Amino acid sequence: MDLSVGIKISDWLKSSVTVRDALNQAMDEELERDERVFLMGEEVAQYDGAYKVSRGLWKKYGDKRIIDTPISEMGFAGIAVGSAMAGLRPICEFMTFNFSMQAIDQVINSAAKTYYMSAGLQSVPIVFRGPNGASAGVAAQHSQCFAAWYAHCPGLKVVSPWNSEDARGLLKAAIRDDNPVVFLENELMYGVPFEMSEESNSKDFVIPIGKAKIERQGTHVTLVSHSRYVGHCLDAAAVLAKEGIECEVINLRTIRPMDVDTIEGSVMKTNHLVTVEGGWPQFGVGAEICAKIMEGPAFNYLDAPVTRVTGVDIPMPYAKILEDNSVPQIKDIIFSVKKTLNV
Amino acid sequence: MRSALSFLSNALSRISGSAGAQTVSELLIDLSEYASLMTPSELTEAPPTCAASLVSPAVASQPLAEFNAQVTFDLKPCELYLLETGPAHTTQLTRKEGLQLYQTMQTLRRLELKADQLYKQKVVRGFCHLYDGQEACAAGIEAAISRSDHVITAYRAHGFTYTRGVSLKQIFTELTGRRGGVAKGKGGSMHMYAPHFYGGNGIVGAQVPLGAGIALACQYQGNQQVCVTLYGDGAANQGQVFEAFNMASLWKLPVIFVCENNRYGMGTPVERSAASTSYYTRGHFIPGIRVDGMDVLCVREATRFAADHCRAEKGPILMELQTYRYHGHSMSDPGISYRSREEILEVRSKSDPISLLRERMLSNNMASAEEFKEVDTMIRREVEEAAQFSCSDPEPPLSELCDHIYSNEPPMEVRGTHPWSKLRSIS
Questions:
Q1: Using CA atoms, how far apart are residues B155 and B164, in angstroms rounded to an integer?
Q2: Do A75 and B209 touch (CB under 8 A)?
Q3: B184 in contact with A at a CB cutoff of 8 Å?
Q4: Does ipTM top 0.85?
Q5: Does B407 contact chain A (CB < 8 Å)?
Q6: In Å, what is the CA distance from B353 to each residue of B207, B294, B347, B412?
Q7: Alpha carbon distance B393, B123 (integer Å)
């Protein structure tokens, strides 16, 4: 219905929510919905979360459901996994995924593989979440992207939201999923507001894990990305559109299981593919997409080899000029699209 | 030499006798047992004189009035750490309980010896870590908790797998990797599961935080259950164990940490791996008990004490069970390069948990030697049947290769070894 001034009521109903608040609301709703759900991690309770993602939850739910842990990643990740084996539905927060390396044995050997090893006798409904990948000025030990490492392993689901709607729907889906889910957030996105659709208001709004979303329709080239770089792709697409190049931008949303069908369908339409990620190139998400495309029907539709746009193959430096040039910039995406299209 | 001859004659008369399930396979087991030094008492056993009947040990054929229905035993006091009082110094054992404990331990013993045999026949592959010698730990702990409590252990797991309710058939068939195995052949020796039994864990020490987590779930759900979390003297030096100690203590989780100290972490004796071998004190701020792990009644009484402690919401407690394994670390370790045959023989002759219990019951007139033999015979038959089944059960179908990746999911495609191999996975 249109008002005479040309503003749709539906526009009024849309609200703008930051990624942080979307994650917070999703956890709040799931904690309320199912008393087996609880959150544990460093500073999640009384500090309101290192990045304030869990703000207000401890005040509302108390010590039993929001648990501050000591700095013992391997120990508390194991405790979280054990509690999932015994009937609870934990959300285990890593302050950043860099610290998950201390606990990676519990994620892989205790969580991911158990349902298979037990032939279905023992499931592990757990979510491991936290910020992943580059931040700003935190240098090498605090900037690694773990998408490729975790997505390598059968038994895990690996999810990487971009915007607030992704964050809300995918986190709810992850918490309701009976499997171990690695939920890769992005610290630089926490404060970014996005408009939310009306349907996302529902407390049962979930985004299916394993399904990518076409954020922008296009005809000349397919851009595939996840997390923060989806935004970079859309920005690049806007610039390229002015030159008459129409990019189709796919937001993976889930790294494992990856929605190859959506990528293939798009490539069979556009005949060109560029992948964009923040992580390192070798053995990365883009490398996997290249391999999958070659093995499927879309290969014969390619008019050029697939191009990967990735982080630079170095540990992350500190100085701003160095850091800025260690991750994909919009101009890198534009350049790569043009090279791929040979224009 | 005399004992060797009497052993051979016993074995031969058992083969030709009418009693029980004595097969060539049983003879081979007995021979292999002898080769790794049997206890003298077993060597001088007289062959059964009567035809065996399959009698449940709880309902033996002799009139009950002949025996003592219940006897009180003195127990070796436990060393205590951060505790004013410890487990009781005496325990009451009924005839029925005694026979049940005996049956459990003897079943575990025969299970492991049969697994040894199957491994040497190459129908069991990979890792096989045997528990013989440590039977009193599993049997004693299980006798003091209930099935609604929880147990998690490391890879030397066959004992608890059985006491937690998995049948011999399902255990052997998992070892031989067939479709009837408890994990359908997907897990093997180290990955067997049952309700409230979380394996079977291959990564040393990882099970300790898991066990604390299971205890957290018990506390969270308010169900008064406890989690018995076992680890060895080798795992006792893992960092994550101390992380689990800290959190369990902070949050007063109802977890009984049990260190099964069998003196050797693979090939390394405890003195060479631990700055402190007083494992029952290594919980620092967690109260501890050091228990004779070869005496099933000691283990039972100590576990009762520990479970009471946890259920009273006093937080975690640590039990060190001093025990011994007759086999090497695994089937690829003969177990005699880092310890002497004399040491093994000495433990077998002086501290064998099964012999200790049997002699206690015999000398207190709680049961007859014949009854024990009937139990032995019945167990041998059960083990033999289960093992035979495990060798004849078919292997898992290849169509199930990719099943059980995810729980509660619609069927999905899994990539095989090459792009044209598209396999199916169901939950």
A1: 15
A2: yes
A3: yes
A4: yes
A5: yes
A6: 26, 5, 10, 50
A7: 12
Contacts of B276 (CB under 8 A, 6+ apart): B282
Average pLDDT over residues A244-260: 98
Token pair of A210 as six digits: 């394993």
Tokens of A223: 């851009």
Catalytic residue status for A243: no
Residue B57 pLDDT grade (very low, low, confident, very high; cuts 50, 70, 90): very low
The residue-averaged pLDDT of B327-339 equals 96
Q: How many Cα atoms within 13 Å fall on the side-chain side of residue A250?
A: 27
Q: Are B297 and B135 in contact (CB under 8 A)?
A: no
Q: What is the pLDDT of residues A253-308, one digit of tens each?
A: 999 999 999 999 999 999 999 999 999 999 999 999 999 999 999 999 999 999 99
Nearest to B412 among A74, A85, A257 (CB): A257
Rg of chain B (C-alpha set): 22
* Backbone dihedral angles phi then psi of residue A184, each to the nearest 5 degrees: -95, 105
Query: Nearest CA to CA, how far is B113 from chain A (Å)?
Result: 24
How far lies A136's CA from each of A20, A133, A186, A218, B71, in Å?
A: 17, 10, 11, 32, 73
Chain A neighbors of B209, CB-CB under 8 A = 74-79, 81-82, 106
Cβ-contact A148, A279 below 8 angstroms: yes
- To the nearest whole Å, the CA of B343 is away from the closest chain A CA by 36
Q: Are strands A221-225 and A273-276 parallel, antiparallel or unpaired?
A: parallel
B214 and chain A in contact, CB less than 8 A: yes
Which positions in chain B touch A155 (Cβ < 8 Å)? 405-406
Taking CA–CA distances from A102, the nearest residue in chain B reads B240
Q: d(Cα A209, Cα B101) in Å, to the nearest integer?
A: 50
Give the count of beta carbons closer than 10 Å to the beta carbon of residue B386.
Answer: 19
Catalytic residue among A29, A73, A165, A288: A73
> Does residue B359 sit at the A interface (CB-CB below 8 Å)?
no
- Pick from A161, A99, A163, A148: nearest CA to A285: A148
Q: What is the largest CA-CA distance in chain B?
A: 74
List own/partner pairs for B271-279 with CB under 8 A and 24 or more apart: B273/B233, B273/B234, B273/B237, B274/B233, B274/B236, B274/B237, B277/B233, B278/B81, B278/B320, B279/B233, B279/B236, B279/B318, B279/B320
**What does the buried/exposed string (b/e) look like for B316-350 if buried means 16 or more CB atoms within 10 Å of the residue's CB?**
bbbbbbbbbbbbbbbbeeebeeebeeeebbebbee
Residue-wise pLDDT for B220-277, tens only, equals 999 999 999 999 999 999 999 999 999 999 999 999 999 999 999 999 999 999 999 9
The minimal CB distance from A83 to the residues B194, B214, B414 is found for B214
A16-18 and A193-195 as β-strands: parallel, antiparallel, unpaired?
antiparallel
Return phi, psi of residue A320, to 5°. Answer: -55, -45
Q: Which run of H or E residues covers position A92?
A: strand A89-93
Residue in the structure block whose two tokens are 């058939």:
B169
Tokens of B359: 């002699």
- Interface check for B210 against chain A (CB to CB < 8 A): the answer is yes
Closest chain B residue to A209 measured between Cα atoms?
B409
Q: Catalytic site residue A142?
A: yes
